Amino acid sequence: MSIQEQYRSRAKELLGEGSVKMVIGYGVGTTATRRRPIFITSPDETDRLVLDASCRTNLAGYLLREGLLADQKSIAVFLLPDGVRALNILAAESQLATAQIVVLGFEIKGEEVKPLEGTAAGDFSAIIAERKEQRKAQPSHEMAVKLEEMTPAERFAFWEKEFSRCIKCYACRAACPMCWCRRCVVDNNQPQWVNTSSHTLGNLEWNLVRAFHLAGRCVECGNCSEACPVNIPLHLLNGRMTDEVLTAFDHYPGADEQQEPVLASFRKDDPETFIL
Amino acid sequence: MTKILYSDDLTTCFSTWRKEGIMTFGPVQEAGNSGFREVQDEKELDMNLILTSRTLKELFFPRTEPMLSYSIGKQQIETSEFLPSEKPCIIFGARPCDAAGMAMDDELFNWDYRDEYWFRRRSRSVIMTIACSTSDDFCMCTSLGLGPDSAKGSDVLLRPLASGKGWLVEELTEKGDKALQSIASLLKEGTEEAAPTAEVPVLFDLEACTTWLADPENFESHFWKEISERCIGCGTCTYLCPTCHCFDIQDEGDTYEGIRRKNWDSCSFQLFTMHTSGHNPRNTQSARWRQRIMHKFNYFSLKFSVNSCTGCGRCTRECPVDMGVRETLQAISTLQK
Ligand code: SF4
Ligand code: SF4
Ligand code: SF4
Ligand code: SF4
User: Fewer CB in 10 Å around end: N or C, chain A?
Assistant: First the structure.
C-alpha cells in the first residue's frame, strides 16, 4: 500500500469510528505540483487526500480557527515534524490541548515521503530530538552563513534592501502558525503603535517586531517565506533567532509541550551576558 | 505596410526618450521578485517575463504615499499637499491584463470624487503594452472577455515579431502617437509577420457566474463557506491584483504635526470592516471572500458596467493556499449546470 493509501485509510477509519470530527490534510491544487489545504468531515471523502513531496505547508495554524476545538471533539491533522513542534508550542502557550489532536505525521526526505510512527504530539520526540542535533550541527541555510560573515553595516544594508520590497500585506503573519494573537500589536490603532505605511521605517518596524515575537517560537516551517508575495527571505531572520536561543539556552523551539517559552520564563541562574 | 520597432534599436529608443526628459519604466526582476520601476536603459528590463509578480498599479497607486503634511500652531493651522509630479513617463512592456486594469480603475477613481493622485500619474504616463505570445497555467484573460492582445488601457500595442527581433507597432491613443513621434526615425516600414498570440483557454462562463452572483438568494449560500474555508486572510490576492484599489488613510505624527498618508488596504483583513464598537459586519473569512468576489463581479459591474477583474491570474498564482478567483468562478459555473 502506498503511503498515500495508508494515510487515506487511516483518515477514513478515524472519521468512520467517530474518534475525530475532521481531518485537515492536503488535496490536489490548481497545477500538478500545487497542493491545497482541505478539510474532510466524512469518511466517504478521504479519497480527496493527497500525500506526496509537494505537501509542505504547515497546517497547524488551522487548528486555532475560532471555535474549531471549542466542542472538545478531536481533529486529525497531517503534520511534518516542524508541524508537530508548532503543535507543542501552541499547547505550551495554552492555545490548544494536544489531547484533542490526532497527528498524522510524515516526513519528506528529498522527494520521498515517509510515514512517522505515532498519533499524539508526544510520540514524535525522537525525531524532534534528532532534528535538534542536525540543526545544531549545521546552519539552516547557506545564505545564513554569508550574513554572519558580513559587517553589521553590510547586514543592515542587506535587510534594508530586502524589506524595501515589503508591501505590508501581513501574509507572513497570516501564514504563521505561531502568529496566533487575536489582535496583533500592529493592528492596535489607539494608539497606532506601529506605522501601517510600508515605507522604510514602517517595514523595518514590522519585520523586527515580528522577528522578536518569534524568537524561540519559530519552528522554521517556511510558511512565512512561502507566503510572502515579494519573496523576502524571512526564514533567514527567524532562523537567526533560532540560532540564538539554541546557543544561549539550548532551546529548540517546540521540543515538547512542557517547554517553557524563552521570552516568558525567568531563572535566577540566567547568565544575562547582555547586561553590562 | 506596418511600422516595426527592432529590439536592436531599443537602446537608442530609451536614450531618445530620456534626453527629452521622459522617465522610462519597465518590468524588472530583482531578488526573485518582479515588478515595474524606473530604468535608465533597456538593459535593466527583463523581457522574458510573462507577467511581473507585482502589478502596474504601483506606478499609479503606490502602496503608501504622503497626501499632506499638517502642523497646528497656536494661531493657525498649516497644511501642504504632496501632489505627484507631472513629469512625463513611458512604461514599456506592460501586459494587456495589467493595462486593462488601469482603465477599469479610472472609472472608480473618477466616480464620486476625482482622485488627483491617481489621475496626475495616469495623464503623465504612456503605456506601451506588449501582446503575449506565451501564457502560463494561471492566465485567464480570455475568460474575462479580454485576451493576450487586447488593447484596453494601452496607448501603444506592440506585437512581437515571429522572428523575435522586434515588434509591430500600433498606436492607440494620441498620447501613444506622441511618444512614437519622438522615435519616428527608429520605426521601420516592413512586412514581417507577428508571432501568434498565446492560446489562453476559457475556463468558465462569466455570464453564468455574474447571473448567479446577482441573485440575492445566493448571498447566504453555503457555497461561500465551502469555497473559502482555507483562506488565511493574507491579503496577497488584493495587493497583487491590478484592479484592487482599496486604501486606508492614516495620520503619522501627533495631534500637532504629522503627515497624512494613503496606504493600501484589503477586504481580506478582519480589521477592514471592524467598527469602533467592536462589531464586525464581515466577521468571518468567508464573508470577506464573498465581498471580494461580489465587489468585482457584481457591485462594480452594476455601477460601471464592467467587471473589476482582468484575468491576470495573480490571485491564484500567488495565493499561499491555492485559492483565487479562478477556482471560485469555475465552481460557480458548474453550480449552474
Ligand atoms: S515564522 Fe515562519 S518559519 Fe517560523 S513558525 Fe512562523 S511561518 Fe513557520
Ligand atoms: S508577507 Fe512579505 S510583504 Fe507581506 S508583510 Fe510579510 S514581509 Fe511584508
Ligand atoms: S484567497 Fe489566498 S491570497 Fe487571498 S486572502 Fe485568502 S489566502 Fe490570502
Ligand atoms: S481578481 Fe485575480 S485574476 Fe482578476 S485581476 Fe485581480 S488578481 Fe487578476
Answer: C
Question: Does B315 contact ligand 4 (Cβ within 6 A)?
Answer: yes
Is the domain of B116 the same as that of B212? no
Atom of ligand 1 at shortest range from CA of A176: 7
For B191-295, strand residue ranges (E) read 247-253, 257-264
Residue after which a domain boundary falls, among B160, B190, B220: B190
Is residue B163 located within the same domain as residue B240? no
Instruction: Enumerate the domain spans of chain A.
Output: 3-124, 142-264
Contact A63, A9 (CB under 8 A): no
pLDDT, tens only, B80-139 = 999 999 999 999 999 999 999 999 999 999 999 999 999 999 999 999 999 999 999 999
CB spacing of A30 vs B322 below 8 angstroms: yes
Neighbours of A61 (CB within 10 A): 23
Burial B267-295 (b: 16+ CB within 10 A, else e): bbbbbbebeeeeeeebebbbbbbbbbbbb
Tally of CB atoms within 10 A around A246 = 16
pLDDT above 70 (res A276): no
**Ligand 2 contacts CB of residue A186 (under 6 A):** no
Q: Does residue A244 contact residue A212 with C-beta atoms inside 8 Å?
A: no
Q: Is A242 in the pocket of ligand 1 (CB under 6 A)?
A: no
**Residue contact B320–A171, C-beta within 8 A:** yes
* A138's grid cell: 549545521
Residue B250 counted as domain residue: yes
Residues of chain B whose beta carbon is less than 8 angstroms from a beta carbon of chain A are: 31-33, 53-54, 63-64, 137-138, 229-230, 232-236, 238-240, 248, 250, 252, 261, 263-264, 266, 269, 271, 316, 318, 320-324, 326-327
- Return d(Cα B322, Cα A79) in angstroms, integer: 18
Q: Is residue B199 part of a domain?
A: no
Domain hosting B72: range is 2-190
Question: C-alpha cell of A49?
Answer: 487526500
Three-state secondary structure string covering B103-140: HHHHHHHECCCECHHHHHHHHHEEEEEECCCCCCCCCC
Which residues lie below 8 Å from residue A211, measured CB to CB, with a gap of 6+?
A237, A238, A240, A241
**Are residues B210 and B186 part of one domain?**
no
Residue B6 and residue B111 in one domain: yes
Structural domains counted in chain B: 2
Closest by alpha carbon to B156, among B183, B191, B196?
A: B183
Question: Domain check: are B176 and B210 in the same one?
Answer: no
Q: Are residues B143 and B16 in the same domain?
A: yes
Specify whether B127 is located in the same domain as B30.
Answer: yes
Distance between B239 CA and the closest CA of chain A, angstroms: 7
- Of A112, A134, A124, which Cα lies nearest the Cα of A55? A112
* Burial of residue B226 (number of CB atoms within 10 Å: 0-12, 13-18, 19+): exposed
User: What does the DSSP assignment read for A80-144?
Assistant: -HHHHHHHHHHHHTTS--GGGEEEEEEEEETTEEEE---SSGGGGHHHHHHHHHHHHHS-S-HHH
Express as a percent the part of chain B with pLDDT over 90: 95
pTM for the model: 0.94
